[in-house]
Design a protein that fits this description.
The structure is a single chain. This protein is an all-alpha fold. It contains eleven helices and no strands. The longest helix has about 50 residues. The chain starts with a helix and ends with a helix. It is a multi-pass membrane protein. This is Adenosylcobinamide-GDP ribazoletransferase. It is found in: Cell membrane. It catalyses: alpha-ribazole 5'-phosphate + adenosylcob(III)inamide-GDP = adenosylcob(III)alamin 5'-phosphate + GMP + H(+); alpha-ribazole + adenosylcob(III)inamide-GDP = adenosylcob(III)alamin + GMP + H(+).
Amino acid sequence: MTSLNGHGLRFAFGTLTVLPVRVTQWDRATARSGMLCAPLAGLVVGLLAAALGALSLLAGSGPLLAAVASVAVPAALTRGLHLDGLADTADGLGSGKPAEDALRIMKQSDIGPFGVITLLLVLLAQVAVLFQLYGEGGWARGALGAVVAAVGARLALTLASRQGVPAARPEGLGAVVAGTVPVGRAVAVAVVTVALCAAAGAASGPYGALHHALAVVAALAAAELLLRHCVRRFGGVTGDVFGGVAETAATAALVVLVLGP
């Protein structure tokens, strides 16, 4: 079990980040463990994003540049793969083509109009929310928002890898991780992660705890809607769909965090 957990952590960090972690085992058992560890990878990405944003703000950059910094870090730490997946998924869904043709469009190296528009709007939304969090709540609120968004995004990947969700293709990362995580374990990880995010938000009081918990729940709900739509349209999930799910969850979490008093 210790060995499997070690391989799982390597899988999570090696596939979900560009951190120098070598994936030493590539099979569905390791993928299951790795996707259960996905929120930990999100925590590291979120902390790095929060650190750069907070340091920028404390150095006098202003909330807008701090927000851009916090958005840039996750993109850099994934080589833009999640954003690329979001754009490809938007192109596939927006094409209106049958599943086989839509999947072929998603595999093309170029980006279409649906992908460009979706990418632009998502990045603008993320920067706008973090700008408001850093501007109105200071470095602490903005940094916590960056962490919660990153954790929520990777938690959505854990749930998207649950058993019963098929792969749309027989090859690729989507085929390796699709359907590997038992539903009970995925739910357990989700409950623990939501509780921890609530505990982090509790620093600003009971409302803060509820607000941050709701942000993660909303992130998972938005991601689930996209996931189900993609399964209906494509017949399953792909690596691009996983990227789209992660970015959708991150954006939803941030939007909820900026709503309310």
